[in-house]
Amino acid sequence: MHLPLMTRSLTRARLLRLAAAGAAALPVLHLAQGAAHDATPLPASPVATPVGPPAVRRDAKSLSAAEKKAFTDAILAIKAQPSPWSADLNLYDQFVVWHRDAFTCDLMAAHMGPAFFPWHRMYLRLFEQQLQAVDPSVTLPYWDWTVDDETESYLWRDDFMGGNGDPDDLYAVKDGPFRKDTWNITIFDDTDDERFPFLIRNLGDGELAPDLPTAAQVDTALGLDTYDLAPWNEMSDPTVSFRSFMEGWRDCVPQSCASDPADHPKCPGSHDMHNRVHLWVSGEMIFAHEGGHEEVKGPFGTMAMNSSPNDPVFFLHHANVDRLWSVWMGRYGRVYAPESGAMHGHNLHDHMWPFSEIGMEVSPAMMLDSRDLGYVYDTDQ
Length: 381
Prior knowledge:
The protein is an all-alpha fold. It has one domain: Orthogonal Bundle (di-copper center containing domain from catechol oxidase), CATH 1.10.1280.10. It contains eight helices and four strands; from the N terminus they run H-E-H-H-H-E-E-H-H-H-H-E.
């Protein structure tokens, strides 16, 4: 069975349209209580301290052909394995479900709040562990989208993530390991009326995200010395809050979880940083049988959905976001706010969903040093 969930959810695609107008065999990460920084001890969990030097996550463009294949093969392998946590899901799709349902309004576990960074850090590490159960040589690479920002980049070649969508076939990805008829999508947003069972990309097309974030914008983010500030949501001032600037919501109004879908937040500002990358990969397009939408050029591709991990490039994108958080902490220290006052799951010592549901009692306080999780980046000091 799936984990229990609330019913109302904020969908990324809806928000952006409004804005434009076997368990025992798998490793489970447990953190030693002493690993937390400035944290009171959490309820007891089985203790396992990382053994040996930390693994190094590398720039994806530095991977050899054999390393790229090992990485994509491991992804394909867990897509074919049953989830140890939900009997009706495969292991890869379990992660898609968790990310999709993290947008549930009564949870809002992973976005529009301070836990954006620590939630995704735990999520990526757990995903990486499942890949390493298939092939211990694999680590999660990152895509530096400030450098490799073209549609002809190494990333989109047949030997790695596969290319752009075919405009003559609903923008379906037709090459690479995750091509149509090889990579089947079965998890969809609740509001997705199309439910196409294949990856959809339209790289850089449309008005919302015609280009990717720049190095200058990253420098601006890294110049902000405040991790986050009240009201601890999408309204936090992005000119002050590093988290808010990096997540990428702009000029929002405080209506995140109103019961009426028409009252979901409107963010008329630009879509930047993390959000912009999702939209750039996704693109905008018009399907003839739907007729498009008034607010934007048309419906969105896979990476704009709450179920965006259906596109494996999601993990390379978020590894880069996680890497930049490590760079920020290298400048300002392993600090986090708030200790209290935010939604549950976003305060320093809160247990984070869904990890708390599968026996992993982890908090933002325990995510402040990637070495405690057993990895570093090739750009870390």
